[in-house]
Amino acid sequence: MTTLQNRPNTALLVVDVQNGVVEGTHQRGAVVANIGSLVDKARREKVPVVWVQHSDEQLARASEEWRIVPELAPGEAEPLVEKHYGDAFEDSTLETVLSGLGVGRLILAGAQTDECVRSTLHGALVRGYDATLVSDAHTTEDLTEWGAPPPDQVIAHTNLYWTYHKAPGRTAGTVETKDVNFDSTS
């Protein structure tokens, strides 16, 4: 369905599952386990896994906080895209990597729901990608002291609105880890 020409492939996009990003997040263990399950399934099915890793003043490159969590490990041949903004497409190599893989459909998981996950989903859709969010494979921290809803509500709201998101010639939506189908166009 994607509006991108000659881009029939699907990729699993794993966003910012780094020590300093997911530490203390809502249901961290379950979310990381779900992402691990998705990575294993993608590898078995020969679906590209693309890793995104954020760095900025609070998340210094090469620091322990910057590293991907120990439960997950990018494969040697799997692309790792470094980013500095919420939207993983902004000022990064992500578009080049996906284009080179012939990817027009993304299955997305990671952190943080209310920043980099949302920004990257929207960035993908406006650039012509089909973008599916794995509803039980993203998480965020508790920002209630600054007026945000509790993390479970942020996650539920993101799942709700992305389920019904639309764009001409592109698909969006959500799916649970157990129901991810890398061959499907829905």
Question: What would you say about this model in short?
Answer:
The chain is an alpha/beta fold and 186 residues long. It has helices at 19-22, 28-44, 94-100, 113-126, 151-163, and strands at 9-15, 49-54, 80-83, 103-111, 130-139, 172-175. 30% of the residues lie in helices and 22% in strands.
- Please state the overall shape, judged from the principal axes of the Cα atoms: globular
Rg, alpha carbons? 15 Å
Strand coverage percent: 15-25%
Q: How far is the first residue's CA from the last residue's CA? A: 9 Å
What is the total tally of β strands?
A: 6
Report the biggest beta sheet as strand number plus sense, adding barrel if it closes. Answer: 6 strands, parallel
Question: H/E element string?
Answer: EHHEEHEHEHE
Low-pLDDT stretches are: none
Q: How many helices in DSSP terms?
A: 5
- Tell me the structural class: alpha/beta
Helix content: 25-40%
Give the neighbour order of strands across the main sheet: 3-2-1-4-5-6
Overall pLDDT:
96
Report on this structure:
The chain is of the alpha/beta class. 30% of the residues lie in helices and 22% in strands. The protein has 5 helices and 6 strands, in the order E-H-H-E-E-H-E-H-E-H-E. The protein has helices at 19-22, 28-44, 94-100, 113-126, 151-163; strands spanning 9-15, 49-54, 80-83, 103-111, 130-139, 172-175. Strands 3-2-1-4-5-6 form a 6-stranded parallel β-sheet. The radius of gyration is 15 Å and the shape is globular.
